[in-house]
């Protein structure tokens, strides 16, 4: 499977880990792909093996109406992600089996991971006919990393890549000079990070007017609050696009999406476990189950009484019945969480760390020792997905532990507010539940949400040892050392418990059983270029 003759020391290390049984074949390939090893980069976009007689399908998608205008610089809602990944592309694509080249043919770090060099694919055309060059990558990344741009990607790049750090070496070579070494940097410019979609230089900021990207589909028609029609791009560098067009209809709720599936009006949707139930035993559909790192963070502000008492935070976590939550909320479509945002689906997570379980007796004792019988503020949660039901179950669990807890459910827009401290119920509430989408790497979860300088540190968690470990983790290139550091972070977060993370939900995608060769990752990226209808 792997030729060692020209391998780097880091590649040798990964294969040694595989030979020792500490990595599965899938994990080996994923890790090799991150550092740009040739074995994982050989395929890129798979060429179609299907004859033209399988071309011409019209694929119908169901989605919520976008939260606002569709703009790669700022969008992060599920519908914008689904549509953007049809028309725009990234330097790297996170396929189910690992990172693969897309607009970049190859990439590699220098010795310490402080400079990453990406070589671009030649012959790529944007829908406008403009050829892709290094200048487009530099312009895109400078927009993303400009503090004045309002970019949704600023939180991820903060402290890693600054404006001006993306440099053109020649027309088809780009160097990223990082603020500090980062072993996971290819994920930052991959399809896991929707804001990193590469747009043509000179893009005027009105992406929605034309959806100009380089992807396999291009815009035919967009109607706000109704839907989008995309047609195949005959100039796509990846080869023949099989579907004739994609018709995406906007639906107001998950029940209406499920009804559209049952009535045969749509072929594919992303919905919750509850919305999937009517489809599970219907042979007209198959359910793609994607293990993910998506989770709800229930934070407790460490600077506010009674959560400034570690005993109270631990008691809160011990009161939660995790298997029961997974059964009631997800019908089993989730994995246990251990109060750290490190999912079993991530290769760096150390599965040997002891799993926290429910212990009502200890929870009651800790609450009593801290003098807590009623929490003086509500648990604040957005009206989104299963979160309101989750909040009710948490309230019930606390009641069994002898503590009264009130709830406040906010509209989604009100809950997030400006997403800045001082003007956001999410970030300002002493106790709140927040949805974090799936990512192939945990840097956002650990940095933005838990580091002392994190812009989403709603728990006000300030721990010098955690900050040191996270910085060490980011600059460590070999997987074994990363796992050792991750284990230390997991154990520290268990001890301090700034947040409760009881599960990582699977991403579910019901598909018409006749639709073949649809690939997806848990972050909402869906490949339809090779899809066909049997």
Q: β content, as a range?
A: 15-25%
Count of runs of 4 or more consecutive helical residues: 18
Which sheet architecture does the biggest sheet show? 5 strands, mixed
- Main-sheet strand order equals 8-9-10-1-11
Rg: 23 Å
- For the termini, the CA-CA separation is 33 Å
Proportion of residues in helical segments: 25-40%
Mean pLDDT: 89
Shape: globular
* Uncertain stretches: none
Can you count the beta strands?
Answer: 24
**Quaternary class:** single chain
Structural class: alpha+beta
Throw out a few tags for this protein:
single chain; 534 residues; alpha+beta; 5-stranded mixed sheet; 4-stranded antiparallel sheet; 18 helices; globular
Report on the architecture of this protein:
By secondary structure, this protein is an alpha+beta fold. 29% of the residues lie in helices and 20% in strands. The strands form nine sheets. It has a five-stranded mixed sheet with strand order 8-9-10-1-11, sandwiched between helices. Strands 4-5-7-6 form a four-stranded antiparallel sheet, covered by helices on one side. Strand 2 and strand 3 form a beta hairpin. The two termini are 33 Å apart. The mean pLDDT is 89.
Give me the secondary-structure topology.
Blueprint: H1 9-19, H2 25-34, H3 38-41, E1 58-63, H4 78-87, E2 92-95, E3 98-101, E4 104-109, E5 115-120, H5 134-145, H6 154-157, E6 166-170, E7 173-177, H7 185-188, E8 217-223, E9 227-232, E10 245-250, H8 254-262, E11 268-269, H9 273-276, E12 285-290, E13 295-300, H10 310-318, H11 322-330, E14 334-336, H12 360-369, E15 379-382, H13 387-400, E16 407-410, H14 412-416, H15 425-428, E17 431-436, H16 443-450, H17 464-475, H18 479-496, E18 499-500, E19 503-505, E20 507-512, E21 515-516, E22 519-520, E23 526-527, E24 532-533
Parallel strand pairs: 1-10, 1-11, 15-16
Antiparallel strand pairs: 2-3, 4-5, 5-7, 6-7, 8-9, 9-10, 12-20, 13-17, 13-18, 14-19, 21-24, 22-23
Helix pairs in contact: 1-2, 10-12, 16-17, 17-18
């Amino acid at each position: 499977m792997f030729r060692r003759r020209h391998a780097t020391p880091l590649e040798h290390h990964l294969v040694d880990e595989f030979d020792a049984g500490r990595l599965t074949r899938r994990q080996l390939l994923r890790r090799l792909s991150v550092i740009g090893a040739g074995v994982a980069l050989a395929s890129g976009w798979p060429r179609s093996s299907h004859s033209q007689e399988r071309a011409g399908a019209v694929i119908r998608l169901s989605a919520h109406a976008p939260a606002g205008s569709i703009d790669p610089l700022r969008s992060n809602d599920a519908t914008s992600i689904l549509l953007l990944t049809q028309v725009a592309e990234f330097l790297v694509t996170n396929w189910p089996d690992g990172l693969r080249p897309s607009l970049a043919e190859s990439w590699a770090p220098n010795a310490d991971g402080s400079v990453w060099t990406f070589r671009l694919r030649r012959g790529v055309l944007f829908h406008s006919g403009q050829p892709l060059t290094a200048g487009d990558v530099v312009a895109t990344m400078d927009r993303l990393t400009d503090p004045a741009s309002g970019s949704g990607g600023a939180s991820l790049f903060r402290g890693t890549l600054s404006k001006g750090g993306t440099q053109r070496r020649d027309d088809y070579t780009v160097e990223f000079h990082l603020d500090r070494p980062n072993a996971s940097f290819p994920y930052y410019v991959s399809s896991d990070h929707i804001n990193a979609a590469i747009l043509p230089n000179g893009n005027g900021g009105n992406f929605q007017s034309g959806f100009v990207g380089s992807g396999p589909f291009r815009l035919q028609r967009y109607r706000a609050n109704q839907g989008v029609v995309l047609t195949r791009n005959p100039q796509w560098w990846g080869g023949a696009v099989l579907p004739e067009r994609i018709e995406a209809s906007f639906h107001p709720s998950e029940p209406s999406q499920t009804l559209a599936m049952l009535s045969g009006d749509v072929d594919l949707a992303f919905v919750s476990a509850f919305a999937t139930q009517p489809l599970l035993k219907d042979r007209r559909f198959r359910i793609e189950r994607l293990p993910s790192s998506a989770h709800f963070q229930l934070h407790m502000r460490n600077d506010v009484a009674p959560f400034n008492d570690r005993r109270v935070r631990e008691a809160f976590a011990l009161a939660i019945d995790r298997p029961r939550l997974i059964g009631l909320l997800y019908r089993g479509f989730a994995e246990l969480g251990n109060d750290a945002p490190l999912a079993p689906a991530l290769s760096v997570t150390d599965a040997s760390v002891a799993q926290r379980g429910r212990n009502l007796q200890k929870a009651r004792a800790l609450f009593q020792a801290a003098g807590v019988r009623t929490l003086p503020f509500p648990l604040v949660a957005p009206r989104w997905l299963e979160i309101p039901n989750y909040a009710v179950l948490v309230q019930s669990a606390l009641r069994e532990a002898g503590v009264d807890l009130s709830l406040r459910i906010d509209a989604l827009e009100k809950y997030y507010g400006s997403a800045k401290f001082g003007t956001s119920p999410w970030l300002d509430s002493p106790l709140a539940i927040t949805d974090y989408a799936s990512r192939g790497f945990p840097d956002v979860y650990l940095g933005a949400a838990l580091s002392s300088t994190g812009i989403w540190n709603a728990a006000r968690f300030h721990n010098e040892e955690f900050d040191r470990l996270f910085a060490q983790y980011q600059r460590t290139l070999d997987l074994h050392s990363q796992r050792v550091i991750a284990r230390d972070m997991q154990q520290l977060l268990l001890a301090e418990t700034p947040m409760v993370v009881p599960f990582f939900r699977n991403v579910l995608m019901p598909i018409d059983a006749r639709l073949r060769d649809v690939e997806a990752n848990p972050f909402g990226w869906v490949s339809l270029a090779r899809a066909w209808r049997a």
